Amino acid sequence: MAMLGFLRKNRQDISRNVNADHGFLVFENTGEVIQAENLLKKNGWNIRVMGPPPEVRKGCDLVIEFPLIEELKIIKVLQDAGIPPLQAVPVTDPLLQPVDLFSAKDFGRYLMVKAANMKLTVDKGSLVIVNVSGGGCPDVPYLAWQMVGRHLNEAPSPREIGHTLCGYALQLAYEEVKKRCSQS
Amino acid sequence: MLAVVGTVPEHDFPLLAGKAVLENGNIYIQGKKTEINRGTPALIAAAAKVAESLGMEAPFAYLAGDIGRGDGSKMLYQYLVDHLGRTNFHTIAFHYLQPLVEWHYRILEVIEKLTPRPVLIADAGSMYMAKMGGQAEDYDLFTPDIGELAFLADEVAPHPFYTRGFILHEENKVPDLIARAYANKNASQYLLVKGSKDYIVSKEGVHGIVDNPVEESMEAIGGTGDTLTGIVAALIASEMSIHEAAVLAARINRLAGSYAHPTPETQVMEIIRHIPEALKVCMVDQ
Q1: Which residue in chain A has the smallest CA separation from B236?
Q2: Which residues of A touch B9 (CB under 8 A)?
Q3: Is A105 helix (H, G, I), strand (E, B) or coil?
Q4: Considering only CA atoms, which of B275, B227, B219, B249 is closest in space to residue B41?
Q5: Could you report the predicted ipTM of this complex, rounded to two decimals?
Q6: Contact indicator for B219, A105 with CB cutoff of 8 Å
Q7: At a CB cut-off of 8 Å and minimum separation 6, what does A175 contact?
Q8: Which of A172, B2, B135, B229 is the most exposed place for a label (fewest CB within 10 A)?
Q9: Which one-letter DSSP state was computed for residue A148?
Q10: Does B134 contact chain A (CB < 8 Å)?
Q11: What does the domain layout of chain B look like in residue ranges?
C-alpha cells in the first residue's frame, strides 16, 4: 500500500502545484482585460488579473488567471461577448499548445475519431453519433447523454454545451468527424 | 468495504451518500434512482455486480450532480472533508470529479489520518487531478487508457488536452510511456493500462498482460473503462492483492464485453449485465 507523501512535500512544491489547475488568458489591450474580468466575475468564476509570465510574448501587460479545466466554457462566454482572448495557456507551462493530433479507426459501418483523450464514433451511413468514450471531466457523461443517438448535424456541439478541457477535446474530435464525413 | 466517489451528469441531482443497491438495471442510493449509462453510475453498477457475485456488501457511493461546472464536485469535496475522517473503508475509488488541486490536497490530508489507510484508486478526472497536483504516488492504482498514459508520461502537461505531440506519437510504445511516467513520479504504485493489450505494472515491472478475448469495438464504447475500474475496485475491496485483482478484472471486463457481442453502437449496460457470468468463468480459470 502506498505511503501518503502529502505531508512530506515542502511548501514550495505544494504552492507550485496548487496553481497547476489554472491558466492565463492573454488579451490585446488592458481595456479588454477589464471587460473580461468584469464579465467572468459576474458569471461567478474565481479569477484574478496579474502581470504576464515572461514566456507569454503576445498581448498587453496584464493577463487573467482562470480555472484551466473550464477553458471551453470561459472562451465561449468571452467570444459571445466579443472579447475573445488572443491565447489561453496553462500556468505551469505557457508554451504548451492544445493537442492537434487526430487518429481515426474505421470499423466498416462506423468511424471513430480520437482527439487527445476523447473519442467520438458515428454510423457512416446514417451519420448518427453512436458512442462517446474516453475523458474524465464531469461534462463528458453529460455530453455523451446529449449527443449519442442524434444526427451529427442535429446534436448540440460540445462547444455549445460543454465546459471543460475534455469537452474541448471532444469538440475537436466532433469537428474532425464532420470534416471526414463531409468528404466521403 | 468499497467507497466510490463521483458525479452524475444531471445539474440538479442532490448530494447522496449511501449504499448502492442494484435493482432492475438501475442503482438506488438513499432511495433515489440513478440511471446507469456511463460515468460513475457505470462504475458503481460494475462494482455492485462483483460485490453481489462474491457475497460482499454493496459499495458505498458518494455522488453529486455535475455537468462540468464543478459545483457538484465542490459540494462532494466539502462533504468528504467533513465526513471521511469518521469512515473505515477498505478501498476508495475516486472517479468523475472536476479536477481542483486545492480540494484534492484537503481530501488527502483527511485520508492521511485514517487508520488503517484505505487502498486508493483514481480514474478519470480524479486521476488527472492527482497527477496535476503532484500526488500520483500517494495512490495505489490508476486505470488510464493509452492516451491518458501519454498524459501521465508527459511531465509538463496539466491535462490530456495539453499532452505534447511527440509523446502522443509514442502511443504504440506502452512500456516506454510507463517507464517515463514512473521516472517523473507521475504514476500510482500500480497501473492498469487499458488498451488493445491491458498492462498491469508497477515500478518493479510488468505483473501481467491481458490481451484475450479481443473485441476491437470496446474502444469505441463509452463506459468500458468505468466498468473495468469498478470491477478492479470491488476485487481489491474483497482483500485480493492489487496486481492479482487487476489481472482478473482485465480478464472479466474483456470476457463480459465479448459475451455482449459488441459493435461500436453497443451501450455499456449491455456489457455490465454479463459481468457475473464472466466473473464466474474467470474465477474458475484462476
Answers
A1: A1
A2: 138-139, 141-142, 144-145
A3: strand
A4: B227
A5: 0.93
A6: yes
A7: none
A8: A172
A9: T
A10: yes
A11: 2-285
Q: Which residues of A touch B221 (CB under 8 A)?
A: 131, 133
Structural domains present in chain A = 11-90 (3.30.70), 102-183 (no CATH)
How many residues can be counted in chain B? 286
**Per-residue model confidence (pLDDT) at position B285:** 77
| CB-based contact B38:B226 (threshold 8 Å) | yes
Q: Which residue has the cell 462540468?
A: B68
Region at A105 (left for phi over 0; alpha for psi -120 to 50; beta for the rest): beta
Domain B2-285 = CATH 1.20.1260.10: no
For chain B, give the DSSP string.
Answer: -EEEEEEES-TTPPPEEEEEEEETTEEEETTEEEE-SSHHHHHHHHHHHHHHHHTPPPPEEEEEE-SSSSHHHHHHHHHHHHHGGG---SEEEE-S----HHHHHHHHHHHHT-SSPPEEEE-HHHHHHHHHTT-GGG-SEE--BHHHHHHHH-TT-SSGGG--HHHHGGGG-HHHHHHHHHHTT-S-SEEEEBSSSEEEEETTEEEEEE--S--GGGGGSTTHHHHHHHHHHHHHHTT--HHHHHHHHHHHHHHHHHHT---TT--HHHHHTTHHHHHHHHHHH-
- Establish whether the linkage from the previous residue to B213 is cis, with ω within 30° of 0: yes
Facing B101 at nearest CB: one of A18, A116, A123: A18
Determine how many CB atoms are found less than 10 A away from the CB of residue B120.
24
Copy the grid coordinates of residue A173. Answer: 474530435
Q: For B152, phi and psi rounded to 5 degrees?
A: -65, -35
pTM here is: 0.93
Is A93 part of the contact surface with chain B (CB cutoff 8 Å)?
A: yes
* Cell, residue A49: 488579473
Interhelix angle B39-54/B224-237, rounded to 10 degrees, is 40
- The per-residue pLDDT string of chain A (184 residues; one tens digit each, 9 = 90 and over) reads 555 555 555 545 555 577 889 999 999 999 999 999 999 999 999 999 999 888 887 889 899 999 999 999 999 999 999 999 999 999 988 888 888 888 899 999 999 999 988 999 999 999 999 999 999 999 999 999 999 999 999 999 999 999 999 999 999 999 999 999 987 6
Q: All 3 cell numbers of residue B203?
A: 515500478
Q: What is the pLDDT of residue A11?
A: 47
Distance CA B268, CA B212 (A): 19
Q: Which residues of chain B are within 8 Å of residue A92 when distances are taken between CB atoms?
A: 156, 158
